Amino acid sequence: MIDLFAGCGGMTSGFTAAGFRPVLAVEWDLHAAATYAANFGAGHVRWADITTVTDVPEADVVIGGPPCQGFSNLGSRDVDDPRNQLWKQYLRIVREVRPAAFVIENVDRFLSSSEFGLLQAEVRPGGLLSGYHLTSGLLLAADFGVPQRRKRAFVIGSREGAIPLPTPTHPSWHGVRTVLHGLPEKPAATALPKSTVEYFGQTVPGRFTSADLHLGRNPTALSLARYQVVPPGGGRFDLPDHLLPRCWREKKTGTTDVMGRMRWDEPSLTIRTEFYKPEKGQYLHPQWEPGPSGHRVDRPITHLEAARLQTFPDDFTWCGSKIEIARQIGNAVPPVLAEAIGRHVAAHLGGTKAESACRLCV
Ligand SMILES: C[S@@+](CC[C@H](N)C(=O)[O-])C[C@H]1O[C@@H](n2cnc3c(N)ncnc32)[C@H](O)[C@@H]1O
Q1: Is 68 in the active site?
Q2: What is the pLDDT of residue 354?
Q3: InterPro entries per the record (predicted)?
């Protein structure tokens, strides 16, 4: 398989677990490419802008999703519009490789974007995707065993008959307890170890183990006072007036998940790239009991906890600064979801069995 816009390799992690072997990964962010290389080998990684990548190897499957640059208001369906460059690049490589199937992941709004319209139009005879059948829809990661309510758009293209999207494998969802329980409540460190490693002739921070990623922060007294009053399932609306920042006091509607606290027995909301900032989402640790002596863990989730909620295996290793690693984690397709999709595609293409035991269920 080929992974375009590979990031740290969340999607590759799932597809390799489903039996695929990567022959090319393209990623232009040095630290994401280094993390990818640390886990899957540097030999097939092109740390480069996709527009410069030529001589692409053969592959059965192409995966990945160009970052969406604009949505329904973009207007133009012109393939030559510079804003569609990344799509052109994806389609260019698919046309060159002519894989049996390709899989695109993107944000949920993607399916109503003009970029998606552009993609669909290309299946016409003579179009860049001529000969492919497309299926598309939204998948909820929790339905596939990920302890996270992450909803993303997926498009599967196939030259061997339409491949429907996979159907949910987990009618009952995993709560965050499945992956957070038992980790130290007080992280021992606030900074990554001072080690570096070389990839692509460059020196980058790394390689860090998942244990290195269990990092605490030093919140201000005001932040702590805010965390303390938010119960599981609650958020900024639980803050008393004197603890409200002005912007929230004035904006009484919208952004309901900010300063949110997880519930032990429910999946988390979407883990985005700044999960270490409670003011950006539902990122507070689920442990909370009321009262002055209640047992509470008043902090946002650590990088390790975020990686686990994204279902990265604990033997995954990481490169980059704290901020860069957080971006890699938040941008990724959860490996457990990617594995379900990979098995499903492989089964349609006549490869391995679709069924397998869920890593988190055992
Ligand atoms: C959403 S992330 C991919 C996440 C990945 N699928 C995973 O599961 O871990 C998109 C990636 O595209 C990369 N990217 C954006 N523009 C690029 C370009 N012109 N060439 C190569 N990579 C690019 C970004 O650096 C980012 O890591």
Answers
A1: yes
A2: 56
A3: C5-Methyltransferase, C5_DNA_meth_AS, C5_MeTfrase, C5_meth_CS, SAM-dependent_MTases_sf
To test ligand 1's pocket by mutation, which of 28, 45, 103, 154 has the most ligand atoms within 8 angstroms of CB? 28
Cβ 32 under 6 angstroms from ligand 1: yes
Is residue 222 within 8 A of residue 246, CB to CB? The reply is no
Question: What local confidence, expressed as pLDDT, does residue 78 receive?
Answer: 53
Domains, the chain: 2-170+333-348 (3.40.50.150), 177-327 (3.90.120)
Of the candidates 289, 287, 320, 290, the one whose C-alpha atom is nearest the C-alpha of residue 303 is 320
Closest CA to 154 of 318, 329, 25, 338: 338
Residue 154 to residue 178: CA distance in whole angstroms:
26
Q: How far is it, in rounded angstroms, from Cα 262 to Cα 251?
A: 23
* Other residues' Cβ atoms within 10 Å of the Cβ of residue 55: 6
Strand order in the sheet with 318-319: 196-199, 202-208, 318-319
Query: Quick one: pLDDT at residue 74?
Result: 41
pLDDT digits (tens, 9 = 90+) for 310-321: 999 999 999 999
Structure-block tokens of residue 29: 């962010």
Candidates 8, 68, 319, 361; catalytic one: 68
Q: For the ranges 72-81, 99-108, 262-271, 286-295, which has the lowest average pLDDT?
A: 72-81
Is 268's C-beta closer than 6 angstroms to any atom of ligand 1?
Answer: no
